[in-house]
Amino acid sequence: MTFRNLEKTAGQDVTEQAPLSKELAPVTEGTPGTRLEKAWDKALNALDSLDLPKLEKPETESLEKNLEALRSRLNSPKAIRALMDKHPEKQDIWDTFKRKMDILTDPNAEPVEINKAKPYIDTHVKSTILELAVKDLLTDLGFDVSEKQVQNKNSKIDVLGTNNTDKSIQVFGVTVEPGEQLSAECKCGCKSYINMQLNEHLPEIQLPGHLGHSILLTTSDIEQIAPEKVDSVCRPNNTTLVNLGLFEADIVNALKEVDRT
Question: What is the mean pLDDT of the segment spanning 232-238?
Answer without folding.
Answer: 95
